[in-house]
Design a protein that fits this description.
Mean pLDDT: 93
Number of domains: 2
Radius of gyration: 21 Å
Oligomer: single chain
Order of helices and strands: EHHHEEEEEEEHEHEHEHHEHEHEH
Largest sheet: 10 strands, mixed
Bound molecules: S-adenosyl-L-homocysteine
CATH topology of the largest domain: TIM Barrel
Helix content: 25-40%
């Protein structure tokens, strides 16, 4: 008997779900009811949607998978950061993280399996891009992380799209995810609580701006001149820093949100006082913020983070230019919580050839 392939429930928009309810002889309001359970009440199965008639629950179960991925690892760090490694139906693996900081509950989600951008210090792109994640697969990460919080008082407060992959290279699927995160009846999170991090794809930044929502934009700059950026972020070769800054300026003009520039600090590579001065010149007249990320070591890569005095000097030079800079705190260090690290380890383990005895 051939297996019936069900649709992923999380791929449906609210209007598609309403239409489905109508096709099945039910009022549209059923869609609102069902979504309330899924996005707001942490149900594990359609069986738990108690005010939905049993017959409709059966139809939902027959046609849709609520969740598709299998959790193959769940790590909890000493600072209560939690990380999930998920296997998708085609056996691809992605990861996502929940971080706790006072009252904030920030989740970090992935948008692609692997990455095509090739940033030389990043674990996610080492094996290239396998494929884009679907809308449902991205939302499933959100819901799985949400379900790690068993206390009803604990809620996702912020989402950062900073996991594996280049979100703007999968913008077609990212946009409906952002809508679901933002909309009432979805996760209901204010746009200001959602951050999209990009390598800097100018046309895609403009498309994001067209949504006319106050999502935060973080641009991974990592170098203050094209010569160095071409080496660290190879896609820069066809783009260039000027084009990225112009698109980011437009984003700020439309959204009113101060753009964050991310800058991974690589000892002896891009952390010299001269680099800080060049960055200061680039950003001094822009309403922006620099987020310095000390290099998270990746097995097989030689880059390391600078010493703290060197990092502090970088910050103070930026301050002399009036550029606000913060150094990112490391979360979940004892569970490989930095992007792509856990997946990489998993792939390396599974790819290690078995020696025949
Ligand atoms: N593709 C997106 C999301 C990448 S992950 C982007 O380029 O922005 C989020 C941030 O972590 C990016 O700034 C990325 O360059 C940075 N990053 C990747 N690997 C890192 C590492 N090993 N140490 C520190 N930061 C890293």
């Amino acid at each position: 008997m051939s297996e019936i392939v069900k649709q992923h429930f999380l791929d449906l928009s609210s209007s598609e779900l309403s239409a489905w309810c109508e096709q099945h002889g039910e009022g549209k309001y059923r869609a609102t009811q069902i979504r309330k359970w899924v996005f707001g009440k942490r149900v594990e199965s359609f069986d738990d949607c108690h005010d939905v008639p049993a017959a409709l629950r059966e139809k939902l179960k027959a046609e849709f998978d609520l969740f598709r991925a299998e959790v193959i690892a769940h790590n909890v760090a000493s600072d209560r950061t939690e990380k999930l490694l998920l296997t998708l139906p085609d056996k691809q693996v992605v990861e996502c993280v929940l971080m706790r900081e006072t009252k904030r509950r920030t989740i970090c989600i992935s948008t692609q399996v692997g990455c095509a951008m090739g940033c030389v210090f990043c674990a996610s792109g080492l094996e290239g891009l396998k494929r884009n994640l679907t809308k449902g697969e991205i939302l499933e990460q959100v819901l799985r992380l949400d379900r790690l919080m068993t206390d009803p008082q604990e809620r996702i407060t912020n989402v950062v799209v900073m996991g594996i992959g280049e979100p703007l290279a999968n913008l077609g699927n990212l946009i409906p995810v952002l809508q679901t995160l933002n909309e009432k009846g979805g996760m209901g999170l204010g746009a200001r609580r959602i951050t999209v991090s990009t390598v800097g794809l100018p046309e895609k930044i403009r498309e994001l701006a067209k949504l006319d929502k106050a999502f935060n934009l973080a641009v991974s700059l990592h170098a203050p001149n094209d010569e160095l950026r071409n080496k660290l972020v190879p896609v820069n070769d066809n783009i260039g820093i000027d084009a990225i800054l112009s698109a980011a300026d437009e984003y700020f003009a439309i959204s009113g949100r101060r753009v964050t520039y991310e800058y991974v600090l690589l000892s002896g590579v891009n952390d010299a006082p001269e680099h800080a001065r060049q960055l200061g010149h680039l950003l001094k007249n822009r309403i922006s913020h620099v987020n310095l990320i000390p290099m998270n070591e990746v097995e097989g890569l030689d880059f390391v983070e600078p010493t703290s005095p060197r990092t502090n000097e970088f910050v103070s030079i930026l301050e002399q230019f009036g550029v606000l800079a913060t150094v990112r705190k490391r979360k979940g260090a004892d569970i490989d919580a930095a992007c792509g690290q856990l997946r990489l380890k998993h792939e390396q383990q599974t790819l290690t050839p078995l020696t025949e005895s």
